Each structure stands twice: as C-alpha cells, then as structure tokens.
Amino acid sequence: MKNLKITVLFFLIIGLSYVFILCTPSKVEQNAKTELKQEKDLGLKAQQAKKFCLDNGMNQDFCILIDMSKHSGKNRFYVWSFIEQGPIAEYLVAHGCGNNPWTLDHSKTNPQFSNTEDSHLSSLGKYKIGERGWSSFGVNINYRLHGLDETNSNANKRDIVFHSWKEIADAEVYPAGAPEGWGCPAISDNAFLAVDKLLKNQEKPTLMWIYN
C-alpha cells in the first residue's frame, strides 16, 4: 500500500510538472508579446507626437521617436513619417552610462535617466531639434537639443546634442548592447548622415521624443 502511494505521488508530480511546462509561456512567446506591445506603444506615441507637432507649429512631415524600454542592442531610434504613417528608418542609439564605464554596455537592459548636470545619464521627454553645428564626434556634425519638458529642461546646460559616434554599429548587435555615452542620443555615422539629409532641409523644427 505504501509503495502504491509513493508511485501515485510520483506520477502526480510528473503530471503537474508537465502541465506547468505546457502552461508556462516560452521565452520566445514572451519576447514576441513584448515586441508586439512595443510596436503598439510606438504607434500610440506617433499619434501623440503628431498632435503635439500640429499644436506647436513643428515639422509635420516626420519626427524622431526613441524607445528606451527596448534592449539597447536592438533598433530603438525611429524616424516616423506622419505622411506614410509608419517608421521610414530605424537604428541603434546610445544612452547615458551614468556611473558605469563609458563605451561599455552595462545598462543595456535597464538604463537610468536624469536631468542633472554631470550625471552622464540620458533625459526623457520631448526635444526640439535645434541648430546644426560642428561636432568633435563622428561625422563632425551635431544638432542642439532643446528640452521641452521638466524632465529634460537642462539639456542645453548639459550640452546634450544629437550626433554620430563611430562606436555605434549600423545594425543590431543584440544580445550585446550599444556602447553607452554621457547622455546624448548618438547613432552610427551612416545612420546620422541619412537623418541629417532629412533634418537640414526642414523649415520647421523637428520633434525628438525620448521615452521609456
């Protein structure tokens, strides 16, 4: 009788384990759900961005959306066309390293954000892409960023600019992360040249929105 109870208990445990495995979403399924949510969030942000641009007299052809909730080794910098109602380009983009070593990827899955000077962190919020100028990085061009929210109001004081960086790859590097800088949204040289062609011909200021 004792042996029978042990046998029944053994098969019960095996059965429950099998059911648990069947009912637990696989990592692939979880990743697919996460990516689907991020796509929906991107579309929602684009709708909000379009309204903001209309209300504030900004560029109504396209905007730039940066989704910091994504792994930094994946494309998360989007040039969103209001005309085509979708992204026309997407690239890797750096975020701030904070107290981590510069150029490494220690916070590739969990970036921190700050509006504080010398924090070496990126700031969330809406930016007006401003003056085109000279940069010591990449292709030697940058755009001044003017923070439009309380969360990025110190962008000018912190010298936060949009520029290129030779350390950033042209294609996704996941599961590695993009190299981390001091808070500027930096993309690869080739990606920047493509975006620069769009920006420098705009009569109205373009919106960049960094969100998490």
Lateral strand order in the biggest sheet:
3-2-1-8-4-5-6-7
The separation of the N and C termini measures 60 Å
The count of DSSP E runs of length 2 or more, i.e. the number of strands, is 8
CATH topology: L,D-transpeptidase catalytic domain-like
Number of domains: 1
The class by helix and strand makeup works out as alpha+beta
Q: What is the second-level CATH architecture?
A: Beta Barrel
Structure description:
- This protein is an alpha+beta fold and 212 residues long.
- It has one domain (36-211): Beta Barrel (L,D-transpeptidase catalytic domain-like).
- Helices cover 29% and strands 22% of the residues.
- The chain has 3 helices and 8 strands.
- The protein has an 8-stranded mixed β-sheet with strand order 3-2-1-8-4-5-6-7, sandwiched between helices.
- A hairpin with a 4-residue loop joins strand 2 and strand 3.
- 33% of the residues are buried.
- Mean pLDDT is 90; it is low at 6-13 and 18-22.
How is the secondary structure organized here?
Layout: H1 2-23, H2 27-55, E1 62-67, E2 77-81, E3 86-91, E4 125-134, E5 141-147, E6 161-164, E7 186-187, H3 189-199, E8 206-211
Parallel strand pairs: 1-8, 6-7
Antiparallel strand pairs: 1-2, 2-3, 4-5, 4-8, 5-6
Summarize the structure.
The chain has 212 residues and is of the alpha+beta class.
Keywords:
212 residues, 22% strand, eight-stranded mixed β-sheet, alpha+beta
